[in-house]
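Subject: mismatched residue count in predicted assembly?

I count 250 residues in my input, but I want to confirm that the predicted structure covers every chain. Input:
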Amino acid sequence: MDFSAAGKASTEVKKLLSSIGFDSSLVKRVAVAMYEGEMNVAIHGGGGQAEVNLDPSQIKIRFIDHGPGIADIDLAMTEGYSTASEEVRSMGFGAGMGLPNMKRNADVLEISSAVNEGTTVTLLWRLGAVS
Amino acid sequence: MKVREIADILDAAFFAGEEFADLEVQAACGADLMSDVMAFVKERVVLLTGLMNPQVLRTADLLDIKVVVFVRGKKPTSDLVEIAKETGTVLMSTKYSMFLACGRLYEAGLRNGGVREIA
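Triage response: the counts match. Full output below for your records.
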């Protein structure tokens, strides 16, 4: 698996949001959550897609992969729990903080997953709300 | 604390961004796991790490971390130096271990960092 591209989309989205003039703390929260999402798709999903939607009321990012799926979502949400390989850990990921970091930085996190079919993770930020 | 003071305290060598030596940092984060770095988002941070790969600089860039110090005498590879020059990130290396490097900065007055309650 080549992880070198993971994070490039987050960097682009961060630049875009900054250039539009969003508050820097919101931009950082979106960037962190999206980077973790990208790493998850690369590490666990075997690659996938990220859809980024921006409208006046919200920022919505959806990650879709067709990987092995998540058998126990509550367990996956537990800080420190990870199924990542040693290779991934040696790159500084696989600490079991990905989904918790995404949840912490987004207003809404939704996960739908089916074993052997794939996972869809949706992140939402409501604009105009206090963050 | 200014970048040049950090360089003095850690007896560090610059590999990129020496022109930003007057940049001010207010907090430090010592970690080899990038997700742990991302769990502690703060402003004006110096990142100390023993991990050396492009993900370190990508994480730094996403978090607006402008100063990265490699501990345990690790010298950044040329691809990392190139990325740091593109993103305007200071890259330094110190001979000290993570523990000693963090301790020296703390002792010198850089005392802000992330704190999280035990979940």
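The interface with chain A takes residues 32-36, 38-39, 41, 49, 51, 53-56, 58-59, 61-64, 119 of chain B (CB under 8 Å). Marking this ticket as 'not a bug'.
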